[in-house]
Design a protein that fits this description.
The structure holds two protein chains of two kinds. By secondary structure, chain A is of the alpha/beta class. Chain A contains eleven helices and 14 strands. In chain A, helix 8 packs across helix 9. In chain B, helix 6 links the parallel strand 2 and strand 3. Chain B is globular. The chains are: A alpha/beta, B alpha/beta. The complex binds thiamine diphosphate and magnesium ion (MG).
Amino acid sequence: MQKVTYRDAVNQAIAEEMKRDELVCLMGEEVAEYNGAYKVTKGLLEKFGPKRVIDTPISEAGFAGLGIGAAMYGIRPIVEFMTWSFSFVAFDQVVNNAGNIRYMSGGLIKIPIVFRGPANGGVNVGATHSHTPENLFANFPGLKVICPSNAYDAKGLLKAAIRDDDPVCFMENTKLYDHAMEIPVEEYLLPIGKADVKRKGADISRVGHGRGLVTALEAAKLLEEREGVNAEVVDIRTIRPLDMETILASVRKTNRVVLVEENKPYCGVDAQVAFEIQEKAFDDLDAPVKRVSALDVPQPFSDPLEKMVLPDAERVFKTCLEIL
Amino acid sequence: MSAGEKIDLFTQMVRIRRFEERCIRSYQQGKIGGFCHTYIGQESVAVGSISVLDKDDQIITAYRDHGHALAVGMTMNECMAELYGKFTGCSKGKGGSMHFFAPDKRFWGGHGIVGGQTPLGAGLAFALKYLDKKACSLTYLGDGAVNQGAFHEALNLCALWKLPAVYIIENNYYSMGTSLLRSSAGESLAGRGIGYDMEYEVANGNDLYTVREVTARAVERAKKESLPTVLEFQTYRYRGHSMSDPETYRTKDEVEEKKKFDPIALYQQYLLDEGVLTEKQMEEIDEAAKKEASDSVDFAEESPFPPEEELYTDVYVNDEIYLAKHGQA
Ligand SMILES: Cc1ncc(C[n+]2csc(CCOP(=O)(O)OP(=O)(O)O)c2C)c(N)n1
Ligand SMILES: [Mg+2]
């Protein structure tokens, strides 16, 4: 085992896949000489050279689209958005071109590309820079969306994403980059579309992804310490495809569920999850499905206001009590 | 310009610099969070160009906006309080460093997404023309921002529809850690106007007189002929891109060399040579700016954070349904 941060896990995944496959290349703003705005791509330029690790101008629509074009022809680009907030100027490329071309060509073309970068609020940078668009991109059939909550998942899932023949949106979190954990030294991959039970419990299910999952785990501790309640925590890991089987199995066991996400609530990821739970496990529920999400406001800059906006363990704890 | 006007512009530049220095200190003390981009080294561009405008002319810029904000007449207090996320800030603490606004001073932001403000500048010009005002818009952007598609679309619209818009590229030679040579093809950045048959000009942005003269020409073209212009002012930022930048992409020598062409020192020398200002007066202006900046820190620190109820306000103009949904009505 090796102790690795989330940041380094992402870095290892990229490096291993670039080493394995010459067709994998990396491009984005500041990814090469500057080692990445968040130092995720540190050392990759040195390892693989400027042909494969490429600094771009601030032209997201241009280089995202260029990546898609190259992918059509067989290259396997990893396109970094410095943050997913900046992907919005490339929205058309990701949605219409990466997401639709396979379908519109009747399956003649495949687009093996990964768009990746952090997508989170909580860092005091205001509304334009704090978007969590996993629900937006997951809305489009043709795209896959992954939001790993820890280093182990980040590495295994990113490697799988790079090998996947479809476009994958991979959303990291700057607030998780320093989180470290033990992960295997040996190579491993994780399947896309498989949720993971991060904590076993019998009394209530908590379902989340990304940093929301970390919050759910913290709240599970509070529940145990204060109430003696044993919560199960399910990490969705991939928003699309969504592994409802694992979620439903947990709900059938505990009969109560609280969904946790840092996404905005309106038409958010948990709206989808909640719908599927009530559709497929209505009779197993002893209480309404509850959600804890970011509040339904643009991200405020001011620190105390922003803290209110994002879910925290106390809010999750309280919401759990409402249905216990 | 009268002596008084000249002194006023000097004062404005000094105020911007002292404000930014105070803001750096507060940031380093952990009192300001998030991203914070300072304008030190580029003061002559905002001050010089805004100084040739009339009361109906409109201004919009990117996230490096503190200098423009002060130059349009926003107070240090409201700016510093915004940086602190306080309720007394220009945007009630909701916008932060990158998102200053003061429409009453014809300042339309403060925009965090690179290039995002460039079509808005065209829109301001469109509105001015629509309303038959003899006025123009001034849109600032960085050397890195010229590579956003939105900028090119905006230029085409301005040229096609003959809009009274002036684009000012503040070429400080870096976009974050990427030097100009590694980000932009072509000889000059302003030259991107050529494809749209737009007039363009490249000039020394550190010389306040030059900035004024060049901007005045473009502003006149906008007002008299309703035609757009692209200007490129060459300048330099002394500090990192934002506060968290290790600056590995340039040498200390380069920065020191550039500081020899400091916009404030240059203009100061002009005023001394012209006999408009004495050394002593300059020191007084500087002392006053320092005090004003330090007072603004006190003001910001003593100000309250926005109250909880502010969370849901300002999302919609007609917000009854929204507020009711959130139990705020
Ligand atoms: C669309 C978009 N992509 C990336 C960023 C991140 N970013 C912020 S500033 C910046 C560099 C911009 O440089 P330049 O336009 O030269 O302006 P300067 O900072 O030098 O004033 C980058 C890449 C962003 N804010 N928006
Ligand atoms: Mg620049």
